[in-house]
Design brief:
Chain lengths: 617, 182
């Protein structure tokens, strides 16, 4: 009897060992490491007022004002996603970086191409989704020469029968969504000063909110509100300059003393350098309809060479909360004072109700910052609730929760005549513009990001309008581990990684989370991937024509089926080596990014296609 | 040492000295014979049975002149050319160290591109630089793809040590490229 028991134990042990080995191998094969979230932990949920029930449309790049990029459609799930196939495709005829998500309203899909920013309306009720109309805005070609990171466009916004989008040459336009006719066009930025517009506008309360690009060109950053009906400028809130220009008044309540004072947009700069100090607004906006506050981050200060701008350089590399009606600043938090490394603060801001330890729900915003830290802040006042690094960081020592201030690492500060090596994260940060998705089902943030470090040397830059104002030599390369991209599922409550997928190339695409429990993203060598939202297991992948730097969306077609759409067209800063045909022998080309993607030209070519997928009928 | 060898050595030395005259000739601002910059000199067009005009002899004098190249190199940094074109690999603007020339790779064509600007974003520098400075810049740009004799270029890179010195750049053939691309 004892022998039998021993035998059973031995067999069981062998089975367990074999299972363990198989399991490990499977994990290794999919390059996935898994750490399940603690059971019973309260999850963050999207801010209710900013994330209405899903109607099957996709009317704005962020899906909703809370910027969740979460689709409540659930026909596609881990069990059937492997059967996903191409429903139809559409070529925009462009070969520039294709960052914009398609939009879907009712029975029409709207595709916004990179420069020359043509818009295509596709009829989803007919087989193959034929073209309904094309809108050709004809922006100036010269704008391409002052766009730091490719002549990209990050998307349009549908509201009340109109499509709103920004043209690379500094104009905002409203287009009749039914006919494709231009309703109005307003000049918001000036290419002669190095300004372009690449961001997607946000429309709320009858206002179209638009920011300029040009943090590498010595522009003066600002957010402009236009009247959605007429295109007339309602207010402009600058990032730098005196309080009256920044729209700082008696209602300004900064969360920490470091952001309090008079005319900080002038006094934290030497002389008049604030006039060319960057702080552009080229990223994502979120909006809380209850607080009537719009949230967005500002870009790096200019020039990159920090020795030319001693001081905190307000209000660059930080987050603004502005009243949408007046533009007045409610609060500002500077994530990266006196930024040394081009660590813009323009990444997506997701509005959630965040469970505090005492059981209370706090209206919060959560955001993976370019500087490598994941911030959770009370969105009513900007106070930090928790901060943790979500990527390898040696450029900073942490964040002082008492003063709110980022703690610099003085040894990593580049100075004239002193090149600093192995700065992590590199200039594009631990994560650049490409947006994460937040799933209320798992309570996780799905962060597509990068793992790059850099060498940096500085020299004086001269300000010449319309030319780069940088003053730095940068050379980037893969960070610890050697993988240049990472897809991280992050628990914003416990502030810890749940799983991560290592990707060879930098991840420059957005993420999409769906209620079916499937998460989508794409790679720069053209693979569009579906993973299990719980553990990151690769469920399905499809090789598109070019590299993917776009933003996936999900919508319900007129036939009631769930569709997934993604643009394929490599480019942007990370893909400039392909679209601009750069020479990888110069590691500093594309402001140092080329060195990190020397192999890209041999792996993928430029293109401009939209792919739409569905399950077989 | 035989006198014959001595003579040939001296002859070689003289020859080397003569050869290096062009390289070493210092150009003093205002006194240099600066040729006019030809408007829109373009290589990739049909000249209706004829051929593009030859390079001005005075323009050719800038090319391969160490002094002009060194000054052009400084201007390349000071005028922020480096911000778009990198150290020759490109970025917002095209690479200058490869074999592709959208608007021509001759020194007079490069000077014309700098002076006039180009439609896809190259600014016009005519109002910011003198003709002489533009010729100096063009002379330096020619070195980035190894078009210029190696004894006229700087042996030391002025970057933070990432790019190879100019003496090590292999000469690229000058070929046309698609100017419609950015």
């Amino acid at each position: 009897m004892r022998r039998i028991v021993a035998g059973i134990i031995a067999v069981a042990a062998i089975v367990l060992i074999v299972a363990a080995i198989l399991w490990t191998q499977r994990v290794n094969r999919s390059d996935t490491t898994t750490r399940y979230a603690a059971a019973g932990g309260a999850k963050a949920v999207p801010a209710a007022a900013a994330s209405p029930a899903d109607d099957g449309n996709w009317t704005m790049p962020g899906k909703d004002y809370a910027s969740t990029r979460f689709s409540a459609l659930n026909q596609i799930n881990p069990a059937n996603v492997a059967k996903l196939g191409v429903a139809f495709t559409f070529s925009t005829g462009t070969t520039e970086g294709f960052e914009a998500p398609p939009l879907v309203v009712g029975d029409t899909m709207y595709v916004v191409a990179p420069w020359p920013n043509n818009v295509f309306a596709l009829d989803l009720t007919r087989p193959g989704a034929p073209l309904k109309w094309e809108y050709r805005p004809k922006p100036a070609a010269a704008a391409k020469g002052v766009a730091c990171c490719g002549p990209v466009n990050r998307g349009a916004f549908y509201s009340d029968g109109k499509l709103f989008l920004n043209l690379l040459d500094g104009h905002t336009v409203a287009v009749d969504a039914a006919t494709g006719n231009e309703v109005w066009r307003t000049k918001v930025a000036d290419i002669q000063k190095g300004e372009t517009i690449t961001m997607a506008p946000l429309v709320a309360e009858g206002k179209v909110l638009v920011g300029n690009s040009g943090g590498e060109m010595g522009v003066r950053g600002r957010l402009t509100a236009l009247d959605a009906g007429s295109g007339k400028i309602a207010w402009t809130g600058y990032t730098t300059g005196p309080d009256k220009d920044v729209l700082i008044g008696p209602g300004y309540r900064p969360p920490y003393p470091m952001d309090a004072g008079k005319d900080l947009g002038v006094t934290t700069w030497p002389g008049e350098t604030w006039k060319t100090g960057g702080g552009s607004v080229w990223g994502w906006l979120s909006y809380d309809p209850q607080l009537r506050l719009v949230y967005y981050g500002t870009s790096n200060p200019g020039p990159w060479n920090p020795e030319q701008r001693p001081g905190d350089n307000k209000f660059t590399s930080g987050v603004f909360a502005r009243d949408i009606g007046t533009g007045q600043v409610r609060w500002f938090y500077q994530s990266t004072p006196h930024d040394l490394y081009d660590h813009d603060d323009i990444n997506e801001i997701v509005l959630v109700d965040w469970p505090a330890k005492n059981g209370q729900r706090i209206p919060a915003l959560i955001r993976p910052d370019r500087n490598g830290f994941f911030y959770v802040q009370d969105r009513r006042n900007g106070r930090l609730l928790s901060v943790a690094p979500y990527s390898f960081v040696n450029a900073y020592k942490g964040v002082d929760m008492k003063s709110g201030r980022l703690i610099p690492a003085p040894a990593m500060e580049p100075a004239k005549g002193r090149v600093v090596r192995n700065i992590c994260p590199a200039a594009p940060g631990a994560k650049d513009w490409n947006p994460s998705a937040f799933s209320p089902q798992t309570g996780l943030m799905y962060i597509p990001h990068i793992n790059l470090c850099m060498d940096m040397g500085v020299q004086n830059a001269n300000y010449i309008p319309g030319t780069p104002f940088v003053g730095a030599d940068v050379k980037m390369y893969a960070g610890p581990g050697g993988n240049r991209g990472v897809f991280t599922a992050w628990d914003p409550v416990a502030q810890r990684k749940v799983f991560e997928i290592k990707e060879d190339l930098p991840l420059w695409s957005g993420a999409l989370a769906t209620a079916g429990g499937v998460v989508f993203y794409g790679t720069m060598d053209g693979w569009f991937k579906a993973i299990d939202a719980r553990n990151g297991k690769l469920l399905w992948q499809f090789k598109t024509a070019s590299g993917i730097i776009g933003q996936p969306i999900s919508y319900r077609g007129p036939d009631g089926r769930q569709y997934i759409a993604i643009a394929s067209g490599v480019g942007g800063w990370a893909g400039a080596v392909v679209t601009m045909d750069l020479d990888p022998r110069d590691p500093t080309s594309a402001l140092g990014f080329t060195n990190a993607v020397k192999d890209l030209k041999k792996r993928i070519a430029a293109g401009g296609m939209v792919y739409v997928f569905a399950l077989p009928q | 040492m035989s006198s014959r060898f001595r003579n040939s050595f001296a002859a070689c030395a003289m020859l080397a000295l003569l050869c290096s005259c062009g390289r070493e000739r210092r150009q003093e601002s205002g006194k240099t014979d600066v040729p006019p910059i030809v408007k829109s000199a373009s290589p990739d067009t049909v000249f209706l049975g004829s051929s593009p005009p030859p390079v001005d002899r005075r323009a050719a004098a800038f090319e391969g002149n160490a002094d002009a190249i060194a000054k052009g190199q400084q201007l390349f940094l000071w005028m922020n050319c480096v911000g778009c074109h990198g150290r020759g690999g490109g970025g917002m603007g095209p690479a200058l160290m490869d074999d592709q020339w959208r608007y021509g790779g001759r020194i007079d064509q490069i000077a014309s591109t700098i002076a006039e600007g180009r439609p896809n974003g190259m600014p016009s520098w005519r109002a910011k630089l003198t003709d002489e400075q533009i010729w100096q810049l063009a002379a330096y740009v020619r070195t980035l793809s190894g078009q210029v004799r190696k004894d006229a270029v700087g042996a030391r890179t002025d970057t933070m040590s990432n790019t190879p010195p100019q003496t090590q750049i292999p000469p690229e053939p000058v070929k046309p490229a698609d100017s419609a691309r950015q």
